[in-house]
Design a protein that fits this description.
mainly alpha; 10 helices
Length: 142
């Protein structure tokens, strides 16, 4: 598990230079280099912005299941406690919601909305559940 290496691999796969990624983030090439070389400890907000700029999820950057990662990271001291605590606080719904990185990302983004935006987000998700293309198949249901 190496966040910096994952960011670099995804950035290169997208055909972006460090400078180009930095521009997308409103940052510098040097800052991206430090991030990729694990010279800085990114906050969850930074990981969210990097993930959005690379069109991936935070879990794609981290490279493993959220809860598994946080415990392994804490034990191996490979992640700073601040990052682990941020990852664990993504959702108050607990382990069930955190098991899915997409659910966690949905909740993280939902929390960025004002009350009117939250109401609209709920309405749009409810609308998606009525479209057959987006419904779970009976086979997929648990």
């Amino acid at each position: 598990m190496d966040i910096g290496k994952n960011i670099k691999a995804i950035r290169e796969k997208r055909g972006l230079s460090q400078r180009e990624l930095g521009e997308k983030l409103g940052s510098t090439q040097q800052a991206i280099g430090q991030l990729e070389n694990n010279k800085t400890s990114p906050r969850i907000e930074t990981l969210d912005r990097v993930a959005a700029a690379l069109n991936v999820t935070i879990t794609d950057l981290i490279g493993s299941d959220l809860l598994s990662l946080t415990e392994k990271g804490r034990q191996a001291k490979k992640l700073p406690d601040s990052v682990i605590d941020s990852l664990l606080s993504i959702t108050d719904a607990g382990k069930e919601a955190a098991e899915s990185s997409k659910e966690s990302l949905l909740i993280l983004n939902y929390r960025k909305l004002n009350p009117e935006g939250k109401t609209e987000a709920v309405k749009r998700v409810e609308e998606l559940t009525q479209i057959p293309k987006y419904k779970l198949n009976a086979v997929e249901k648990e």
